[in-house]
Amino acid sequence: MLFTEEHEAFRQSVRGVLQREVAPHVEEWEEAEIFPAHQLFKALGAAGLFGLEYDPEFGGQGADHSYTVILGEELGRMGCAGVAMAISVQTDMATPSLHRFGSPELKKRYLEPAIRGEMVASIAVTEPDAGSDVAGIRTRAVRDGDEWVINGTKTFITNGTQADWLCLLARTGDEGGYRGMSQIVFPTSTPGFSVSRKLAKLGNHSSDTAELSFVDARVPIANTIGSIGRGFQQQMAQFQNERMIAAYTAVGSMDAALRRTAEYLRERQAFGEPLLSKQFIQFKLAELSAEVDMLRHYNYACAEAYMRGEDTTRFATIAKLKAGRLQREIGDWCLQFHGGMGYMAETWVSRYFRDGRLLSIGGGTDEVMLYVLSKLDGFTA
Ligand SMILES: Cc1cc2nc3c(=O)[nH]c(=O)nc-3n(C[C@H](O)[C@H](O)[C@H](O)COP(=O)(O)OP(=O)(O)OC[C@H]3O[C@@H](n4cnc5c(N)ncnc54)[C@H](O)[C@@H]3O)c2cc1C
User: Fold this and answer.
1) I need a labelling partner for 69 at 20 to 30 A (CA). Which of 18, 91, 156, 303 fits?
2) 0.90 cut: is pTM over it?
3) pLDDT band at 2, cuts 50/70/90?
4) Ligand 1 near 86 CB (within 6 A)
């Protein structure tokens, strides 16, 4: 991956914006178990951080995917996984399908304001009875003239209490399994829609997660993203963006966590010297850092393949799987090296440990990554 001076300037500018707009509020937002999405997103939209790769005609920056890699790494480095996740839902999880397949009218109405940060978006796929098995979703959209009438429930939806619109996956045909689903832009102002519950979580406290209910909610057929009946396939493509940004973000966060831990150990004295003088600790940090570096370069290979227009399913699957596993390991070691302080709620590392657990679950679990990979690599009977 060739990073130029322009990339470096972009990295510094992203770091500066996040330092200014997010860092001072992290404790307050974590405590409140929500962050002001509209206020923050407007500031980030004005800074040009949303829609990096999107068409300038709709307010995007028209940049290539290498800039998304940098955005992800810096979101991770920021040290607040909840807000990082909320931002990447807006940039790389809820909007790629709309950009890729949406009609110009739909993009004008929903993508453009999302890029400006004036509308908050969510991706609504998971249901109480269907998570890993996306083909099992039951939320149904039935055609009535030029409208869809939608009934169902979605759960674990990030930004769910604050979203202005959802990229909703619903069943629009009678065919079962992977067929007969569509992606629909669903405005949350639609009568019949409600947030049934805001969910309390183990980590990522600053991010709101919700259960959503749809009762005879009507939206225009024209809100369908791309082709009716191709929703599953379009969502699978969108998942690749989700898994890529998750892996890029993980690298930034793990690198920062190892460095912060080393700083602590340089100061912390035991047995007459800094703990960082202990060879066991040095070697462990060095080895984990080497693993982060391997993942970073694997991510870069993935990004390059994506920029060449190749299918990055295998790259994204492996990157997401390894990132989830490594983040858990690094969270555990960093906490361990902080001793009792690591267990205290006031310490950044206890939050890092809790937050990091999500990566092996959200956006497809480790087991789902292995399921995809075993099929791709022919490890099936
Ligand atoms: C904080 C948070 C935020 C989220 N945000 C969103 C969001 O914004 N939008 C959205 O749509 N979803 C969101 N999700 C949902 C997330 O994508 C799902 O939780 C995830 O895909 C797993 O689905 P599930 O929870 O139903 O687990 P299940 O599918 O019930 O899986 C339970 C366990 O069984 C394992 N398993 C499943 N299938 C297999 C198999 N074939 N072989 C072996 N093991 C298997 C799983 O790996 C897991 O360990 C979020 C989740 C969390 C926790």
Assistant:
1) 156
2) yes
3) confident
4) no
